[in-house]
Structures are given as structure tokens and as C-alpha cells.
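Hi everyone,

Forwarding the result from last night's run.
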Amino acid sequence: MKKRISLKNHTKKRKISYKFFFFIFIFILFLSLTFNYLLSKNININSKILVKYLLQDSNPYIKKTKSEKKRFSVINLLNLNYYAFKEIKTKKSSKQKLEVKKEEPLIYLYNSHQTEEYSNSDMPYSINPTVTINNYIMREVFEKNNYKTIIEERSIKDILNINSWNYASSYKASRIYLEDVKNTYPSLKYFVDIHRDSLKKDRTSITINEKKYAKLLFLIGLEHNNYQANLTLTEQINNKINELYPGLSKGIYKKGGPGVNGIYNQDFSPNTILIEIGGAENTVEEVMNTSLAISHIISEVIKINEG
């Protein structure tokens, strides 16, 4: 009888043990699937709050619990100094507060190459952040300066897959979103396509006033009628960068001729800007320092042009 009781108890323990390990397996599987889902959506993970923030902005199935006025500060979440721009002495005009109020969206931020990545050396969980993280920093700066901004959060990859296009057709895909967002928000006037360079870090990095930055490069396509207007706007921005952040910009790269795209959707508007911020080996901190600087400068140029 004792042996039977002992055997029965042993069987119960084995069943409990199996249930425990089965529960652990299901839990780990759930975490893994969730994690891979976040990666597939190009969400840049730096904190739990940031993930929730980005999900609420981009996922229509998540109930919106915040208003525009209560939006989280992405800059604060990344522990960056918002007023990094003030570290370099500027002329009086550079310090003036922008007073022009834009009730309707004026700026559209997008990424024709959404999956271009940066270094993960200063990121938790070994997650590689993509160029899309610049959008949130730049939007915050633009809206601090009273310029309402729209971020493109729809997937370029979805358009490529639907049309059976390859990666080289990314500009065709982003063009679809450009036309759609302009129809939805006719007030949009400035269109900024943010990319990342592929050069080594020694060619994409610089230290200014003991602060590390990712270098900038502007690209102008020459195979369309708007190129001169786009070039004029880009030169305004580049000249201001050279004035305030010497060495930060690698200049303006003009592309045209056989075998080259030569358009890059810049025929869409005379105010289309294509910027490459940093390279694959730049850290998030370096990239964000540059993103802060360039968005302040673009804000000043818009103020001048809008009168």
C-alpha cells in the first residue's frame, strides 16, 4: 500500500513538472513571437515607454489613450539634451523663437529605405535602430517651433510586396504614400526623405565642441524640372549647417546621367529634401545629436522662406 501511495505521489509530481515546463515553453514562445513582430514593424526599442509610444502612434488596432497635447517626449525618453542646438554660439537671428503658427500640417517626414540600420552598441537588447527613429526627434523639434508635422508610419515593404517590386523600387513605393498624404493634407509643403549612408564610421562621424555627431550628406537628383528649386532650398540648409556646425555636412551630392535614378521623387515638389544622416556604424546618440541640429536649422530656413 505504501509503495502504491508513493508511486501515485511520484506520478503527480511528474505531471506538475511537465505542466510547469510546458507553461515556460509557451511563455518563451509568446515573448519570441511578440519580439519578432516588433522587429518586423521596424519599431526602434529603447525603453518600454518608447515601445508603447511608437505602437500607439503606428498601430490602428491599439486604442489611443493619449491626445496630441499629452504626447510623450521621444527626446526625453532617449535621454538626449533637447537644447543641444544652443551649445554652439549662433547669431542673434539663430536664437530667435519661431513665432509663425501652422495649424495645418506643413512638413512630411518619410523614409524610402525604412530598413537602413544604425549601430546597436548603445541600445538595450541588441536591437538595431533604423533611420525611422530620426522622424520622431525631428517632428518634436518642428512642432516645438510651431510647424505641424506628419510622419509616414506605413510600411514601404508592404507596397513592394503587393506590387511584386524589388528593393530598387522603394522610391516608387514611397511615391504612392507621397501622393496619398498630399491628397489627405493639401497644406503639406516640405517633404523630407531621411536615409543613412553606407560608409565606414571614420567618414560618417565628427566631434564638434566635444560632442559627437553623425555626418550629413544631401542628395539632389538632376533628371527633373524641379531640381534647381530643390537645390536652392538644400543649399540654404547646407550653408546654415556650415555656419553653425563646421564639418558636419559632407556637402550636396548631385546625381544624374545614365544608370542613375536622378529623380528620387524630388520632382514631386520644389521643397523636397533628401538627407543621409550618419552611417551603419554610428550610434543612436550620434545620430540623434545630428537629427536635433538639422531639424533646428530646417526650422529656421522654413521661417525665412515662409516670411
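Residues 117 and 130 are 4 Å apart (CA to CA).

Cheers,
N.
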